[in-house]
Amino acid sequence: MRYRRSPAILTAILLGACGGGSPTSPSDSARLTERLVTAHFVFHFAANDRVDAEWLEAYHAWAVAQLSVSPPVIEYNKYRNRAHLAALTGHSATNGYAEPAQGVVHTISPSDGHEVVHVYTNQWGFPVAFFVEGIAVAYQVNPPAGDFVPRWRGVPVHDVARGFRATGQLLPIASIAETAVFRTRDELVTYPESGSFVLYLVDTEGLDPLRRLFGTIGIDAPLATVRSAFQQTYGFSLEEAERRWLAFLG
Asked: Are 77 and 135 in the same domain?
């Protein structure tokens, strides 16, 4: 979902979006007093709350092998709900966010693979949100259950994109390729759309070009820079990639 590079820039640009959540009860400000340490995570959570450490360790084993990364031990801060997260972090409009450079995840989910992926791919760089969120959605799978189909709210991301295309909701990639614009659009569209596109790129071109792209463009890159970097990395234009993806969707 969200990741943070610096308080001044990314609090404004990257932590926006999905509804309210102000404290409503004493439990909303309960401190994260519980601690659980596993091989790859240090979990912090409130009393009478829980994390799914077993699932996350299984996801970690699968994801780091797929991405060929060696991340640091991740500090995983679990909150009871949005109000609890807001009370302790000040971020009231999100279910979770990551601080990749610090190896820290903040989330209301007991098992948040999406935010963890932001930490993994931090080793590659910080491109525009379309690609950062796209790869996180593209890796929303369930390895412990043997389910490797990326899903958005339970629906395969390609099927979500096909539905958007059928109803006219699918956005031109160029219109959301800049981070500031991406963050102003409906994330219920931009997230699965970017996930479908990035998944298509990985499946057809492999992971190496995407890894290079991450290291080539910055999070605030303008559209012209995104287009140029994509062309140089993949050998074809962003628009050509979009045409191929749409043809794949059918």
From this structure: no
Structural domain of residue 223, as residue ranges?
129-249
- Residue that is last in its domain, among 121, 154, 171: 121
Indicate whether 177 and 80 sit together in one domain. no
Per-residue pLDDT of the chain (250 residues; tens, 9 = 90+): 544 433 333 333 333 333 333 334 557 789 999 999 999 999 999 999 999 999 999 999 999 999 999 999 999 999 999 999 999 999 988 999 999 999 999 999 999 999 999 999 999 998 999 999 999 999 999 999 999 999 999 999 999 999 999 999 999 999 999 999 999 999 999 999 999 999 999 999 999 999 999 999 999 999 999 999 999 999 999 999 999 999 999 9
As for how many domains the chain has, the answer is: 2
Tell which of 101, 121, 141 closes a domain. 121
Q: Are residues 183 and 114 in the same domain?
A: no
Containing 77, the helix (H) or strand (E) segment is: strand 74-78
CATH of the domain at 30: 3.40.30
**Burial zone of 18 (CB within 10 Å; 0-12 exposed, 13-18 middle, 19+ buried):** middle
Q: Examine the domain organization and report whether 164 and 83 are in the same domain.
A: no
213 close to 127: Cβ distance less than 8 angstroms: yes
Q: Tell me which DSSP letter residue 108 carries.
A: S
What are the C-alpha distances in Å from 170 to residues 104, 118, 151, 207? 32, 24, 17, 24
Say if CB 74 and CB 116 are below 8 A apart: yes
The pTM score is: 0.88
